[in-house]
Amino acid sequence: MTFVVTEACVNCKHTDCVEVCPVDAFREGPNFLVIDPGACIDCIACVAECPVHAIYADVDVPPAMHDYIALNEELAAEWPVITRKKPPLAEAEHWATVTDKRAALRRA
Ligand code: SF4
Ligand code: F3S
Asked: Ligand 2 centre and the CA of 88: distance in Å?
């Protein structure tokens, strides 16, 4: 099992999650974070930290967002580690209520 960052994080990137991870499993892209499934130890600590409820155990990811499981693994291999909280993206409040944000996810 691993935990997975899903769509709600896109264009929000609050980063509260990274501070509690005991194994530095988060990786940072321009407007999204992912969890490295090879590093995550399933401690569940990050789930309660995310203000937009973006993080799920892989077995609990809603069907419409199953592609985010593979996306976390793929992008974790490309993006750098993030361990310290930083301010959320400028329009995080607006994007927190947008549901279909896949097209806005930037890989680089
Ligand atoms: Fe890190 Fe635990 Fe979240 Fe996995 S479940 S990413 S180990 S805080
Ligand atoms: Fe994203 Fe939530 Fe972490 S918005 S950066 S998963 S706290």
From this structure: 9
Classify residue 18 by its DSSP letter.
Answer: H
Quick check: is 95 in a domain? Answer: no
Q: Which segments of the chain have a pLDDT < 50?
A: none
Residue 17 Cβ contacting ligand 2 at under 6 Å: yes
> Measured between alpha carbons, how far is 38 from 27 in angstroms, rounded to an integer?
12
- Cα distances (angstroms) measured from residue 34 to each of 27, 49, 92: 5, 15, 17
CATH code, domain carrying 10? 3.30.70.20
- Per-residue confidence (pLDDT) for residue 85, from 0 to 100: 98
Could you give the number of structural domains in the chain?
1
pLDDT of residue 67: 97
Range of the domain at 59: 3-80
Ligand 2 center to 104 CA (angstroms): 16
